[in-house]
Amino acid sequence: MIVSQFEVSQYEDTYTIYELKEPGTSSRVLVCPERGGIVIGCQLHGEELFYLDKATLEHPTANIRGGNPILFPICGHLKNGSYEWAGTRYEMANHGVARTSPWEVISTSTNSEASITLRLQSNKESLSAYPFHYELEFTYALVGGELHTRQHYRNCGQAGSGAMPFYAGFHPYFAIEGSKSIPYDTDATRYVDYNDNVVKPYTGVIDLNNRGASVCLLDAERREIAFPIREGVKVRMRYDDPFKYVVLWSVIDHPFICVEPWMAETGELNRQEELVLLEAGETLSCNLIISRA
């Protein structure tokens, strides 16, 4: 009898949780479609990388603190929580609508990888904050001890309806032990310190021990970043070209750091200088890979 190298199963724990497993690399990924299509656990080569405050997951309206929330159609916040498009003003919460919406499970697979494909479509509620017909299709795939997040962003509007603006991103929480003064392996040369909105030189280390706000790495040409989270455990993230920025954030006295690939800086839907613009019928496809370095 041939035993599959990959496994996909599900169980109930407040919500339906899907478990992707690759026993040969001691790796598993946990996905909760109902709570924003979020990955809540990422064990690679025997080490759990993600932080999760389970109480925020179980509360049906709380912002989940942990895992890897999906940010769409914006990253960060908007001034006064609103923006104007085509002469109409709309209100939108921080990080957009995808992370608070239930996603639909399309399929699972154990053929050459352990994977699950989810879909999110625009609806009456989302259209009140973001007046565009969209479809997001994400596949989480565990293979070779790596987590791939394959993304497809589609403008489902009618021909001639205009371009759909967005800037997507991710908000992974990594469980850390010890100091948050960490060397980040990146070719970024500067960062914006959102504590004082001053651009500063990046000298190899960012200290998040006592920060109340985030920083945004600038000028990176390599679409990857690596960093240690505990002794003997280093994380590497690789991402496609649309993700131009990486935001670093934490909360004082909480054992996590967030290392967040974003397509644009916070507030971009107000500035409208670096928006991704998809015409009706177009699709943007990207990948994010989380691995052990």
From TrEMBL:
Sorted alphabetically, which InterPro entries does this protein's record hold? Aldose_1/G6P_1-epimerase, Gal_mutarotase_sf_dom, GH-type_carb-bd
Instruction: Give the matching Gene3D superfamilies.
Output: 2.70.98.10
Taxonomically, which superkingdom?
Bacteria
The name this protein carries in UniProt is Aldose epimerase
What organism is the protein native to? Paenibacillus chungangensis
